Amino acid sequence: MSYHEAIASFDTLNSDRVWSTGSKHSTKRRLSLDERVFYRSNKIFSTTSSSGPPIRPIQSKKILDSDTGRKNSTVKPKDFIPQKFHDVYGRLGVVMLVAFSLASTTMAYEAVVQIVPNWTANFLMGTSELDNGEFLVISKPSDSIVVTSAFMFALFSCLYLYLIVFMLSYNKESTVRSLTETRSTNSLLTRFVLTCHSLFKTKRVHSEPTPKETRTVIAVAAALSRSKSLKAYAVKMQQGPVLRVHRANKLIHNILNTNGKYYRYFNASLDFPKLIFQTMSLETFLDKGFRLSIIIFYAVPLVINWLVSFYRFQRTRPDPLVLVGRTVSLFDLFFSVFSPILMLVYAYHNFDMDRASYATRVETLTPGMFDRIARLFADPIQMELLKSSFANLQVTEGRYIFVKCFLNGMGVYKWRKLIKHLILRSRSTGDSSKKSVVHPHSRVLFSLGACLFLSCCVGIAIDTSFSIYTSAKNCAPYAHCAVYSYRWEWEGSSTCPCLVFIDRELSPLTYNEWMNAPDVTDAVRSLAASGYLQTIQIVNRALPELPEELRLSKNLKDLILVYTKTRRFPDWMKEFVQMQYFHVENDFIHSGLQYIPHDMFSGMTKIRFLRTGGASGLTEYPSLKGLSKLSTLVMTIVRHLKELPNLDELSSLTTLYIADAIHIHSLPSLTGLTSLKNFALFRRNQICCDGWATGYCDLTNFQCLPRTNEPAVTCTSDRIPAADLAIIQRIDGFLCGKNITQDLEASEPTLESTDGICQGILYRECYLNGLRGICYNGRMQVVHCDVFGEYETMRRLQISRGVGGVCDPETEAWLGCSITT
User: Fold this and answer.
1) Residue 525 pLDDT more than 70?
2) Does the keyword Membrane apply (predicted)?
C-alpha cells in the first residue's frame, strides 16, 4: 500500500463514521494532518491498545478542574455562608488593612511631591515664609520624569485601595465564584506556556512526507483497518490538544499555586531581585552618609527580611494561613513604601528652627539684607538631613521609576495572591484532617538557594559594619567634616570620603579674630582630594583661593563662602554642573570680590540660588543665559558694574534683589521674569535719583551726592519701560523707596567700633560719631556698634515678644528688658 493510498483509506474511514463525545450530541469532522500521523513524536496512540475502553473528551474538563487547585463544587448558592473577618485573615488581617491604607496615602503623597516638591516641603515643615518659600531649594527633574513618576505613584495608590476593597469582599458570592473559576484554555498565560512547550518538544509537520513519515502513515492506516474500536482512537485524537492544555495548566498550577510543587522556587526567583534592589537602597543610604540611626533602622530589617525569605524558601511544611508569606510581604511593604516616609518623619522631628525669632527679622530688616537669609541661620547638619530625606522621595531618573514599579508591582501582585488564597481556604469544604502534599527539595536547588541567601545576608552585615568603621576612622581627624559617606575601600585607603564641610563662626567677638580668621585651605584641600564633597559652608574663616583639588568634586551642589577673603574664582568653576546653591559674601572694603569667570554659570543649569555680595571690585558680571531653574538672584555692592546681566531666560526667577549698583544707568528688561514675586532695589543706586526710575531728577538726593573718586551723577531723559514698571507695581516691589542716608563704609566694623566700644558684648548701648546704636554682629560680622537703627528695632521687638534668646536686664535695660521680661 502506497503512502497516498493509505491517506485516502484513512480519510474514507473517517468520513463514514460519527464520533460520539459521551453526550446526546454528535460531531462529524475530518482528521487533521497532525492526527493522521498520530502525534508520532509523543506516541500517544498504540495499535495494541485499540480494544481498551474509550476515553471520552468530557473527562478533560474534570482533569483540568482537579489539577488547577480550584474546587468548583465547594461553593454553591445553597451553602454560601458568611464568614467572620478573623476566621478568614486571622490576627494579621487588621494589620494588613492598616498597612494598605497607609500605603495608599503614602503613594498619593509621593505623587504630589513629584509635581510640587517645593510647596510640599514648605507645607510640611511650615517654612513657606522662610526665604520667600525657597528655604530648602528643592529642584525638579525633567517634565517627562515628573509626569511619569506622578502617574506611577497615583496608580499604585489606587491599587493599594483596590487591595482593601478586594480584601473586604470575602463575603461576596460574586467574588468567591470569580476566584473559583477554572482558568480559560485561551488565557494568555496558558497560551504562553503552550508556545514555549511547542518550541522545545514539537516539530513542525512538513507538507512533503519523509520516508519515515510515509512508513508511519501506511502502518497506521493498516492498523485502523484492523481496529475494532475506531471511536476510542478518534476520541484520543480529539483529546490531543486538550491534553496539551491540561499539561500546561498543571505546570502553571505547580508554579503559581501555594501548594504547587515548584512554588517555593517561583517565590525565590521573585524574592532574590527584590532583595537585591532593597540592598541597593541600603548602599545608597551609606553612600549619601545618612545618620547611623537611620542606617541601622534600615539595615536590621533588611537582614531579617533576607533570613525570613530564606526560611520560607527552605520550608517544606504547609502554611495554610501563609503567615510566613504575609510577614515577608509586610517587610517588603516597609522597604518599598514606608521607609522613605519614616526617614522624612525622623528629619522633621530632628529639625529645629526658631521661626518666631526669624519673623522679627522679616518685619524689621530691609528686603534682600544678608540677615534675612533663614538658611544661613539654620543648623546646617539638620538642613542636610532634611534635604536628603526630601530628595529620597523624589524620582529623578528613569531607572528609579523601574525599581519603584518593580517593587510595588510585585508587592501588589503577591498581596492579591495571598488574599485570594485566604478567601478560598476559608470556603474550602474538603477534609481538613487530610494532610497537605509535601514537596521535598531538590538537593542542588536547595544548596544553591541557601548559598545565595545566606552569603548575601552575611555580606550585607559585613559590608555595612566595615563601611561605617572605615569611614569613621578615616574622617576622625577632620572635625569639620559634618557628613561623610560610609565606604569600605578595598585598597585600604585612608582618604576621608567627606560630603559636607562646615566651618563657621557666626559671631566673632574681637576685631583681630574677624580680620585674621584661621585659614582652612589645607583642610579643604585634604577633604576635596577624595572627590566626594557636595556641600561647603565656610563663615568667617580664610580661604583666599579655592584649592585645585576641589576640582575633583564633580558633584559639588552647595557652595557658601561668607567673609573668606576669596577675591577670585578659577576658570574651572564652570565644571560644577550640579551646583544648586552659590553664595559668596565678601568684606567689600578689605577683600571685595574682584573676578568671576564670564562663563562660570554656563554649565550650572540646575542652580536655584545665586547671591554675590561685597562684589565691589567686579567689573563684569557673568552671563546668566540658560539658568531657567534659577529662583533667587541677589547682587549687592556691585559698585564697579556698568551693566547688569540679561535676565530674559530666567523664567523661574521669583526673587530679584539689587543693592548698591551705583553706576548702573538702567535695569535689564523684566518682561521675561514670568514668575517674579519679590523685587527690591535699595541702598545707593544712581537710577533712583537721575530720573530713570522715579521720573524726575533730584541730584540733591543722598544717593546722588558727589563722592570722592567717583564720577558725578547727571540727569537722564531715559525712563523705565512701562511694562517693567507695571511688573514691579503688580508684585508690590521696593523701587527706590525710603532708603538709608549713610554710606556703607560707615557701617563697616573698625577697631574702635568693635574692641573700643562694644568689647564683644551683644546688645550693649553704644555711640558712634554722635549717633546712638546697638552692639550687634550684623551680617555675621564681628560684634560692633551699628547706628543704622534696624537691628535695634529688631531686638526691641524680640524682647517684647519673648523670642530670640533671654534678654539680660543689666545690658539690655535700655531696650526694654527687665527682670520680669
Assistant:
1) yes
2) yes
Is residue 564 within 8 Å of 535, Cβ to Cβ?
no
| Nearest residue to 320 via CA among 411, 412, 408, 430 | 430
pLDDT in tens, 796-816: 999 999 998 899 999 999 999
Q: Are 328 and 200 members of one domain?
A: no
Q: Mind listing the pLDDT tens digit for each residue in 576-620? A: 999 999 999 999 888 889 999 999 999 999 999 999 999 988 999
Cell numbers at residue 158, please? 489606587
What does the block give as the cell for 479?
A: 572635625
Q: Are residues 585 and 687 in the same domain?
A: yes
DSSP secondary-structure letter at 748?
A: S
Mean pLDDT, rounded, for 54-67: 39
Residue of 651, 629, 626 lying closest to 139 (CA atoms):
629
Distance CA 587, CA 616 (A): 9
Residue type, 743: D
Instruction: Dump the DSSP string for 609-630.
Output: EEEEES-TT--SPPP-TT-TT-
Please state, in angstroms and rounded to a whole number, the distance separating the CA atoms of residues 118 and 128. Answer: 9
How many other C-beta atoms can be found within 10 angstroms of the C-beta atom of residue 714?
A: 11
**Are 120 and 112 a contacting pair, CB within 8 Å?**
yes
Expressed as residue numbers, the domain containing 345 is 90-172+263-430
648-682 burial code (b ≥16 CB/10 A, e <16)? ebbebbbbbbbbbbbbbebbbebeebeebbbbbbb
Say if residue 759 is in the same domain as residue 716: no
Cell numbers that stand for 592 in this block: 571685595
Question: Which residues does 174 contact at the CB level (< 8 Å), separation at least 6?
Answer: none
pLDDT, one tens digit per residue, over 630-679 is 999 999 999 889 899 999 999 999 999 999 888 899 999 999 999 999 99
Whole-angstrom distance between the N-terminal and C-terminal Cα of the chain? 122
Rg over CA atoms, the chain? 39
> Is the same domain home to 66 and 101?
no
- Decide if 374 contacts 472 (C-beta within 8 A): no
Instruction: Based on the fold, state whether residues 596 and 737 are members of the same structural domain.
Output: yes
Residues 6+ apart with CB under 8 A from 9: 1, 221, 224, 225
- The answer to pTM > 0.70 is yes
